[in-house]
Specification:
Helix content is 35%, strand content 18%. The chain is of the alpha/beta class. It folds into two domains: 4-191 and 306-446, Metallo-dependent phosphatases (Purple Acid Phosphatase, chain A, domain 2, 4-Layer Sandwich); 219-293, no CATH class. The longest helix is centred in the middle third of the chain and has 40 residues, at 254-293. The chain crosses the membrane at residues 212-237, 257-283.
């Protein structure tokens, strides 16, 4: 029986074409090698989505796992070597739900010293308390399995991944760069159209066309300012020639004609947009009402649900199982630690690339998606009668993967909120929160991203 538990999740190894690329392969192999060298009574628990089996559309059944093994030989050989020294346990998530459906996977993974426990919940005893472990998809309406263990009972998230994410992997080789494979890092799903538009503008658009469009967009605000000034001149609130035909404009010489041409083009664009705005708004409103009438779109329902359903689930577990001191889950790809008195909720995050939408320094240019990695793990060990939860982030030198133009115009995203390196839990404590505090009011430290989720998680 182990006395130390290490947690990681959401590696998402595998997928069609470019999706099988593992950006963090070196870091993962090094992490596993470090655990092998340490040895001891340690259990590494990968609590879901170790593999991206949903991301395969060209192979089915057990062939999916064989493809993952074939595409990542270094990782599996290191898993085999590390598994000779410590226990390595896998539990299914939603993206590798097949692990819960086919008993043959138990023996196949055992060949690499991986212990597959095809359960939706695991528990481990630490000190005088219990650690409750799950992936978390059962609290996500879009990815909840209606009949655990039935390979034909699949949630809506599976079909979205098959139609959108797997397709992106197959078509990514046609893009300028491999940005399309990052679609699985876009959250929530509603962000995908804006993400596609951003990458079209900064990566796929013809450089010649971008050279023409960018000045038009940059001068858009100047055009609006110019129009307002002209109107104020016309009604007498500003002196004549304050905006039009003033000495500064005349001093530009030939450049004045270029400026006037750009302003004229922008005025035409503004006029067209104003003419289209009302009919487009009416069309959108009527279309939405029609979809709601047919039950295709339900008013008030969002795909993005944040972490609150998972925190509510943790509260329910603490209420019904007083011996549970730590609740561990993944799925949302947002590493966090939330402490309620003497109880702790841990989200193990993801090793995938993370994309954060940021605005540009120049108004009217599309925002872009700033890439980063947060390779991390949690370690839970006993310390006398107490439980210690340790957090560590693995350093990586992954490139930012931005074009020179994106680097020029992008604002830098805010730094992620830090997670405590050490948190002490007393299993003998109570769950009651001071002052009737609710789960949403409790102390939480996360990776600083918006509270939202994706149907493809």
């Amino acid at each position: 029986m182990a006395t130390e538990y290490v947690f990681i999740s959401d590696l998402h190894m595998g997928g069609d074409e470019q999706l099988t690329t593992l950006d963090f392969e070196d870091e993962l192999v090094s992490f596993l090698e470090g655990l092998r060298k340490r040895g001891g009574d340690v259990e590494l628990i990968i609590n879901g989505d170790a593999f991206g089996l949903w991301e395969y559309a060209e192979v089915t059944g057990s062939d999916k796992l064989e493809r993952v093994i074939e595409d990542h030989p270094r990782v599996f050989e290191q898993l085999r070597a590390t598994g000779e020294e410590i226990d390595i346990t896998l539990m299914p998530g939603n993206h590798d739900y097949d692990l819960a459906c086919y008993p043959s996977y138990v023996n196949r993974l055992a060949e690499y010293n991986l212990i597959l426990e095809p359960e939706i919940v695991l528990t481990r005893e630490v000190a005088d308390g219990t650690v409750w472990i799950e992936h978390g998809q059962q609290h996500d309406a879009n990815n909840r399995m209606p009949d655990w263990g039935n390979p034909d009972a699949l949630p809506v998230g599976y079909f979205v991944v098959q139609r959108i994410v797997a397709a992106a992997g197959r078509y990514s080789e046609h893009a300028r760069g491999d940005w399309l494979r990052d679609i699985q890092s876009v959250a929530p799903m509603e962000e995908i159209p804006r993400w596609l538009l951003s990458n079209y503008f900064y990566r796929e658009m013809s450089p010649l066309l971008r050279t023409i469009v960018v000045p038009l967009l940059l001068f858009f605000n100047i055009t609006i300012f110019y129009l307002i000034g002209t109107v104020l001149e016309a009604i007498g609130l500003l002196p004549p020639h304050f905006f039009t035909n003033n000495a500064l404009v005349r001093a530009l010489g030939a450049a004045d004609y270029v400026l006037e041409l750009i302003i004229a083009i922008n005025i035409v664009i503004i006029g067209v947009l104003l003419m289209l705005a009302i009919p487009l708004w009416l069309f959108r409103r009527d279309l939405r009402q029609t979809l709601e009438r047919f039950g295709v779109m339900l008013s008030g329902v969002r795909v993005g649900q944040g972490d609150q359903p998972f925190l509510n689930a943790a509260k329910d577990v603490f209420d019904s199982h007083p011996n549970v001191a730590v609740f561990v889950y993944g799925h949302t790809h947002r590493a966090s630690l939330t402490k309620w008195g003497d109880r702790v909720v841990v989200n193990t995050g993801t090793w995938l690339k993370k994309l954060q939408h940021v605005e540009t320094w120049f108004s009217r240019l599309p925002g872009l998606y700033y890439p980063s990695f947060r390779l991390n793990y949690f370690r839970i060990v006993p310390e006398g009668d107490q439980i210690v939860v340790e957090y560590e982030q693995i350093k990586t030198n992954q490139p930012r993967d931005l074009t020179w133009f994106q680097r020029l115009v992008a604002r830098k995203p805010p730094a992620p909120t830090s997670i405590p390196e050490r948190t002490v839990v007393d299993p003998a404590g109570t769950l009651e929160l001071p002052g009737g505090e609710s789960a949403s009011d409790s102390k939480s430290t996360t990776d600083g991203e918006p509270e939202r989720d994706s149907i493809t998680r």
